[in-house]
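Bug #77: duplicate submission created two jobs. Keeping one. Sequence:
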Amino acid sequence: MMGASPWQTKEQYLDSKLHPKEFVPTQNMLHGRFDEQHNMKKFEWITGLKTRSTNLFMASTRWPELASTIDGVVTRPVHEYTPDPRVTKTLWPMQLRQTLLLEAKGRVGLIEMKQTEVWYGRKEWLNPSEPPRHYQLQLQAQLHVTGLHWGILCARVGAAGMMAFYVERDDSNEFVGELVETIYEFRSVVLEQ
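Kept job's structure:
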């Protein structure tokens, strides 16, 4: 609804909600769902951060129209950890741990797992300074639904690549205003039908 999806326009999304058809997941969705817990364990192995799969569906008590599926939770580091050099050739695991120690409010955050092909994900996940916007918005919605202050957006890229980003909940008036406006816009369109 915030117009950030690379797969469909805002109008197409609204139409899919107003006129639901049987949902048929793509091959990548099926693989991502099947591999989600394995990928969380791989994330743990690389970073030393503990995760727990939840597979919850939650709705906001503040804005009932805002609901999210929650892949899992992750806890801030409580002990030193040096990743196996064979596991990762990048600095992001230690940078992520350092960021969590310095910036994370609260002991528990969310983890949102993604899985993508190397040919597609290399430019989108392995080289950027931040994760794709549409996934950031998804995690922001999840943070606002749960009330948690931070989360990790993690992608497994191909067979062995992985990248993760720390994301703080955006409580700015600008973002919350856009979120609320989108929720009310969605509500008004649904009520008109």
